[in-house]
Amino acid sequence: MIQTLDIEQLRAQTPGCAISTHFNHSGSSLPSNAVLAAVTEHLQRESLYGPMEAAANATGLVDEARADAAGLIGAMPAEIAFSSSGSAAWGLAFAALPPIAAGDRILVGRQEWGGNLSTMQAAAKRAGARIETIPVNEDGSVNANALAAMIDDRVRLVALTWLPANGGLINDAAAIGKVTRAAGIPYFIDAAQALGQLPVDVAAIGCDMLKGSGRKFLRGPRGAAILYLRKAFLETLEPAYLDVLSSAWGEDGPHVRTDAQRFETSEKPIALLLGLGAALKQARSLGVDTIRQRIRELSGQLRDQLAAIPGVAVHDLGTEKSGLVSFTVAGIAPQALRGKLAQKRITIAANGIPYTPLDMTARGLSEIARASVSYLNTTDEIDHLCGSVAVIARQAA
Ligand SMILES: Cc1ncc(COP(=O)(O)O)c(C=O)c1O
Predict the structure, then answer these.
(1) Can you tell me where the transmembrane regions are (predicted)?
(2) Which of 66, 89, 261, 392 has the fewest CB atoms lying closer than 10 Å?
(3) 374 pocket-lining for ligand 1 (C-beta < 6 Å)
(4) How far is the CA of 308 from the centre of ligand 1 (A)?
């Protein structure tokens, strides 16, 4: 259901909104007071009662966070593991796949996150396997038909970064899922930029694994991430390591858990998970459809205003676009632009090749400026950003 957001109130409940004009929600968004309180109050309980004792009393809240994470993406709580980062979550799932062998193939989207690519490259090099890039459609999105034509019995994995880190493209994750499902090939989705920004339904997408960090559009604290593993799929995975939680020792030896917590450890940052839980509750109560609609409107406006500034080029691919807006300004490097805007307390990011190496290289880009929009942003903030970019663009011309 689309509801109206009380932006003033949401901003008033977010201390960072009063400090800067934040356009780096895809790097890390601004946590709300509720998230901050969930984290700090638990840390206080740890100091007063002892961390183990405080954790025992927080079990119900961690379970709630797990249920909310599952609810956010249409999964079951038993299919959710918490991890420390999106990359750690992705790596845990990848390392648990059956070993790849010489001649095996891994097919990836052109926008694959650099860290995932490094992990796959290292494994492929060890095994003598190949990583191949799936061709793209005219709008830059991964081409599902081209993927279907590449499938053979040597393909071990299809990996897609749903929303890339370097711009507004939204891949058609469900179209890719149709192909992988028909072929019975594991399908991993990096949803770092989707969680809390786009409605997600893992069953409709048809993925086996999906992960995302809590600190981005969900506005959780740093250091907590969500890993989804489809139930029947996770039972086939062998974690690279186990501990006393993921595999309790019984009289007859170790018992590996059958739920996604086979990827968790007994030691975990309870305070951060409670913060993530508060962020999940907020996103769900606002409604991700509502969030999506506001981000679509604001980012569309930002793109139009930036494109109208002499010397500015907007680089976003895709037909339907996300809240990540990528651009360059003639005569000034993105990193220098970021620095100049930071002096005015306007926060954007500047990304080079390492985050999205295949896509940046294919498009001949070396660096882009990235302004990413949250529902918290306002049209006044967009005017402030664009006015400042226009001044810098004039000076750089
Ligand atoms: C698409 C994508 N994948 C992965 C990551 C890395 O996530 P983390 O820093 O939580 O490992 C990012 C971070 O920006 C991202 O945009």
Answers:
(1) none
(2) 261
(3) no
(4) 30
